[in-house]
Amino acid sequence: MHLDFRTMKPDLSVIAYGILWVCIGLTLAAENPHGIGIGFDLKYSYGTAALSYPNGTIKEIARVNTTDEYQKTIRKLSFYAFTHNAPPYSSPAQRWRDWPRQKLRKFRKSVGRPASEDVYQISTLVQDLKRATEEALGFSIQAASAAVPNLPAIYDEDLYDSFEYVGLEYIQLIPSPSYEQRFLLFEPFAALAGHGLGLCPDVKDPMTCWEGNGCEESYWVIDYTKSSLFVSYLRTFPAGVYSGIDLAKHSYFLGSDARYNNTNEDFYWKEVNRILLAPLFRWVCREPSKIIILGESSTDEKFREVFHNASKTYFGDNVPPIFDEDPVYGSAKGVAELVRRSVYLPKPERPESIAQNRPAGEQDSMEL
């Protein structure tokens, strides 16, 4: 059979379909041309963003200040009075008690509203970081992850819904829940990753540290900013930053800006010293082997003097190594690094899905 291509009519639908897929491919490439990972650090007074490349390069991107309403929300979430049942549930009874709150969240989302007022305030910082990141990169981002302060009343669903509200996919980095039944990445653990600590050596096999002693270690983490002072005693288990305990003490009245609010400055520094040592004297079962110092105000000379005296009080002449190379972006870089590694781990389910899929007998056995 002889075909005369000069007389054949083109199929416009096929041509249009091909053009459409070319455009989609170009759009996806423009959204993330380098396959980068985005990490946010949602601090009390400011937020930071960093990115990671597949080859391991990590760079800081942006820093934005938080609003007064956001800070008010974070202070509220610091109180146990505002804790509530939330996925993943430990028993069917917890799920039933949380049913009215979940129905309200779903209704608000169905009409285009944030799932809760807390979600809205958290989303303001996520949105600002998203915008600043996109301006710096020159293209839109579709997914990111974040570290948050270790507060009793912040939950996984708050992060998922905050990201969803601003049009981002939230990347859950912690594969199994903490002893508090949360999958959140807390800032001190992100800071470890940002300094190359608590990480398995094989990027493509991040769970190898689960065997043996792995990355089991103890740390003293200090975060000193203009508006707050957070201090943690961390104990990581064999999986390193993926599993551990964060025993924390914090104050929103001991940031560096509060230094001159008291007529007796010595009283301020005595309180700073007390908060610095509180987690060590109260909870330590194994002395920290490393110290991480974070925060925009952590380079203040007087603060360093108080820290030095506090460390001598506890450790004597055997002060552990100090990591303070990147006090502002260290945690965000740690999140970005864990996003890079997350592609080699199974994608975790949302906490509410885990609660639905867990057998009833197992739920009952986990009642706290």
Short synopsis of the structure:
With 368 residues, the chain is an alpha/beta fold. It has eleven helices and ten strands.
How would you describe what is shown here?
The structure is a single chain. The protein is globular. It has helices at residues 12-31, 68-76, 92-110, 117-137, 156-165, 187-194, 265-283, 301-315, 330-342, 351-357, 360-365, and strands at residues 37-42, 46-52, 58-65, 143-147, 169-170, 217-224, 229-237, 240-251, 290-294, 322-323. The longest helix is centred in the middle third of the chain and has 21 residues, at 117-137. The model is unreliable at 1-8, 14-30 and 355-368 (pLDDT under 50). It has 11 helices and 10 strands. Helix 4 crosses helix 5 and helix 7 packs parallel to helix 8 (301-315). By secondary structure, the chain is α/β, with parallel strands linked by helices. The strands form 2 sheets. Strands 3-2-1-4-5 form a 5-stranded mixed beta sheet, sandwiched between helices. The chain has a 5-stranded mixed beta sheet with strand order 8-7-6-9-10.
